[in-house]
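Quick question, first post here. What does this chain look like in 3D?
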Amino acid sequence: MPKPLSQDLRERLIAAVEGGQSRRSAASRFDVAASTSIKWLDQWQREGRVSAKPVGGDRHSHRMEAYATEILALVAKTPDITLAEIAAYLEAEFGVQAAQSTVWRLLDRHGMTFKKNSARKRAATA
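> Answer (accepted):
Ran it through. Tokens below.
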């Protein structure tokens, strides 16, 4: 994913539009897309913010922390449970739809990893 355009460019474009230039002509002047100029000005008018929004990262898994104790207890009770089964349990019990990757990130944050070993008769090295 590309980096956001600079703060300085955003500020200069907004200043140009506030100085009387149209959004599209300011976009042409600063060599950005017209839609970018329009979005920046809308953001400036609605939120008073010029800076770019945060890029990347996990912004949704924190909602699962409310169910962490139930999930961890479920895994302790049934150690061979799958991520899909945990997601199905959450939907059945709490009405929460969660992707398997979201469940995995929760387990990973709590230090629960599942490694292959000879006791479980999983795949072995050649």
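The chain has six helices and no strands.
The helical segments are 7-18, 23-29, 34-47, 68-77, 83-94, 100-109.
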